């Protein structure tokens, strides 16, 4: 979708004086809008969005088009522009609401992919710092996946894939943060559970090497040498040049051990899969 069209901006400038009183303080705003066509109001909204520095100033124009000219082509355009304007203003809840209304009203429209992308983006751009609740991250992942699966050939699919990977990495980072917290305080079993999640569920993220190294550390602290050695073996096979492998190798050697698959733990199963290629 092209949000701004250069031809519109020229016409919009010409209509600024005509519509200048519509959004001001005094007078009945709705009655003032009724004196103008949907196209004139729309162009004023675009002008405000481009020039006012306050994206929400444009929303009132797009909203009035919906009210005065429902189900028209301009109302359809105005609705997607409401979603965009709210997103520009960082009012993500309203952006989601407008985007969802567009999808509900015009599910087969050519701009449905953009509406779905805006909806996903409104979750993605709200992802908090790693230390906070990750509920929005899950919602972002779900919405981004829908863009990828429902509109794979759209221009938004590639961006959605990149953002999906980043959000996925963000969840792994959360598990790592909690795992480190437990490890530092000697709660080794709780720490192992967090690092295991990263290795099993987020193995394609950037956090897997550290998770394996932390597993070596935690298992050694518990005296579970077979598991520690197996974690080291997986780390060495997949990330031998990583500084995390150097650290894990030093820890194992310090205990007179070496990286190798031993025993029959969940890590042995991972080793068989990722190193030996045995999935059954």
What's this model, at a glance?
Helix content is 70%, strand content 0%.
Describe the structure.
This protein has helices at residues 6-19, 29-33, 38-51, 56-68, 73-88, 92-105, 112-124, 135-150, 157-184, 188-201, 208-222, 225-238, 243-254, 266-274. The chain is mainly alpha-helical and 280 residues long. The two termini are 47 Å apart. It is found in: Cell outer membrane. Part of the Bam complex.
Task: Name some characteristics of this structure.
280 residues; mainly alpha; 14 helices
Q: What series of H and E elements makes up the topology?
A: HHHHHHHHHHHHHH
Low-confidence stretches: 1-18, 23-31
Cα Rg: 27 Å
Mean pLDDT: 87
What profile does the largest beta sheet have? none
Number of strands: 0
In angstroms, what separates the terminal alpha carbons? Answer: 47 Å
Shape: elongated
Strand content: under 5%
Q: What structural class do helix, strand and pairing data support?
A: mainly alpha
Task: Please count the helical segments.
Answer: 14
Summarize the SSE layout with pairings:
Blueprint: H1 6-19, H2 29-33, H3 38-51, H4 56-68, H5 73-88, H6 92-105, H7 112-124, H8 135-150, H9 157-184, H10 188-201, H11 208-222, H12 225-238, H13 243-254, H14 266-274
Helix pairs in contact: 1-3, 3-4, 3-5, 4-5, 5-6, 5-7, 6-7, 7-8, 8-9, 9-10, 10-11, 11-12, 11-13, 12-13, 12-14
């Amino acid at each position: 979708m092209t949000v701004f069209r250069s031809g519109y901006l020229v016409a919009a400038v010409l209509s600024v004086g005509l519509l200048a009183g519509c959004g001001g303080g005094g007078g009945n705003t709705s009655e003032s809008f009724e004196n103008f066509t949907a196209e004139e109001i729309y162009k004023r909204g675009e002008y405000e969005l481009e020039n006012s520095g306050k994206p929400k100033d444009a929303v009132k124009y797009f909203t009035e088009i919906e009210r005065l000219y429902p189900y028209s082509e301009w109302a359809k355009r105005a609705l997607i522009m409401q979603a965009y304007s709210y997103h520009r203003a960082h009012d993500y809840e309203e952006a989601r609401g407008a985007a969802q209304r567009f999808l509900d009203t015009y599910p087969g429209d050519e701009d449905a992919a953009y509406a779905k992308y805006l909806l996903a983006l409104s979750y993605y751009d709200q992802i908090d710092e790693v230390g906070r609740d990750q509920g929005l991250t899950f919602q972002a992942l779900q919405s981004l996946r829908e863009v990828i699966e429902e509109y794979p050939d759209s221009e938004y699919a590639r961006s959605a894939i990149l953002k999906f990977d980043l959000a996925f990495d963000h969840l792994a980072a959360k598990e790592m943060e909690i795992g480190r917290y437990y490890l530092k305080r000697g709660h080794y079993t709780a720490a192992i559970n967090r690092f295991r999640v990263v290795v099993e569920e987020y193995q394609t993220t950037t956090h897997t090497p550290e998770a394996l190294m932390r597993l070596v550390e935690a298992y050694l602290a518990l005296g579970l040498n077979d598991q520690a050695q197996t974690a080291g073996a997986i780390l060495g096979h997949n990330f031998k040049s990583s500084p995390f492998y150097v650290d894990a190798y030093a820890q194992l050697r310090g205990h007179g051990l070496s990286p190798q698959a031993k025993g029959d733990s969940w890590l042995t199963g991972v080793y068989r899969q990722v190193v030996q290629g045995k999935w059954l």
